[in-house]
Amino acid sequence: MLIDLPDRADVGCEPPWVTGGRPPSPGDPDYASYQDFLAYEARRDAFWTAHAAGPALPLDAPIDMTAARSDAELVWEVADADRLENAAYGAKCRAVSNVAMRKLRNPDADYDPEYLRRSVEAELGCLLKLSPAAVSNLCHVSMELTRRYSKTFAALERGEVNRVQVQAIVDEGADLDVAQAARLEERVLPEARERGGRSFRDRVRREVKAIDADAVRKREKRARADRCVYLRPEYDGMATLCLFMPEDEAQRIFKALKERVHHDRAIQKEQAAEAPLVIARQDERTIAAQELDTIQAILGEALGIDPTEPEIPASSALSAEAIELLDLHANTYAPTAKMKTAVRNRDKHCRFPGCRRPARQCDIDHSIPFTKVKGKVLRGGTRYWNLGCLCRFHHQVKQMPGWHLEQDRGRFIWTTPTGLRFITYPGADDPDAELPDFIKELTAPVPF
């Protein structure tokens, strides 16, 4: 796909004498710049002349290809790459929109459009290695750009706006009609070059409020209804505990937390001053760490727990005899409590590719549907190797047209409506541990 980028001369990158203009004379305002340009040209010619006259280098020898380019040119290359990245994101959104629109216009079966959208999202999530939330947002943005924000879409495909700015327009204009959305584009797109990040989002929000104040109130009401607490695993054994709540309430809590920490520090200093002969122990914690320790102590006391005491992890190791005992109830549809615990301990999370919803929040699904006729189970018994954890969203996706799931002793093999295949394995108790023997014996692609 060819991307038309603005000419450098149009934005002042190329001086006029490079494009055929008259070189400046001594005394002209641009004469000093012209002398710098001539020096740069001389350096470039000298570099390539020396390179051509030098000894032949091996084919794999590194060559400094930037030596002949000025700092301004190198900086401009960064801008070029940024516009190409924006345009590539626009091309991705266009492709996603094309797939989704085709599915919705030509459904494979008489299914609700919402379920068809979920099926598309699930397949794209597998392909792009995105979480359900990320791929859902990608599909939403792509569809909104197609349906209501054609000018923004065109600017994105030209690389003139970035994904953060596009996200701001789509989010803030969610409750505008088509005519109002067009007005929003006309007013904020010209400012996309001068504003970025939070500044651009604030500008869009003010414009939406000017166009339809009720739309802003609707968004705020929905956001307040979505308040929640959630945990996001991080790296190096850390995690982020998040509170999504109204800003004014969060500000009051944060202010009280700061005051509590500063109060405790003031008391420590007073105690140290009253006992000058006692060498006070230096608190090596940062202010941020003290704030966290304070709120951790408050929550631990309120909940009656010690957050620093580790839990004993549930092991997924089961002997063949233990599995046989669990399978004694294979003829009943509902798994026993022990079977549910064993399957959740084995899987750790939803077994759909890329989904990490904890197993405790998942359904226990029969990989082969449970079929019982006249008291006899014909297929899909409630057995350990026929059960798995699927979140409610992916449980529904599994039953959509074109989806197929096989299970081979804990290995889940997913086939999408377009024939793509993805494989997931049970979560290990120790992420650095080797795979179990029954999985090592299987030949399969690299796990998702």
TrEMBL record:
<feature type="compositionally biased region" description="Basic and acidic residues">
    <location>
        <begin position="1"/>
        <end position="11"/>
    </location>
</feature>
<dbReference type="Pfam" id="PF02720">
    <property type="entry name" value="DUF222"/>
</dbReference>
<dbReference type="InterPro" id="IPR003615">
    <property type="entry name" value="HNH_nuc"/>
</dbReference>
<feature type="domain" description="HNH nuclease">
    <location>
        <begin position="338"/>
        <end position="396"/>
    </location>
</feature>
<protein>
    <recommendedName>
        <fullName>HNH nuclease domain-containing protein</fullName>
    </recommendedName>
</protein>
<feature type="region of interest" description="Disordered">
    <location>
        <begin position="1"/>
        <end position="29"/>
    </location>
</feature>
<dbReference type="InterPro" id="IPR003870">
    <property type="entry name" value="DUF222"/>
</dbReference>
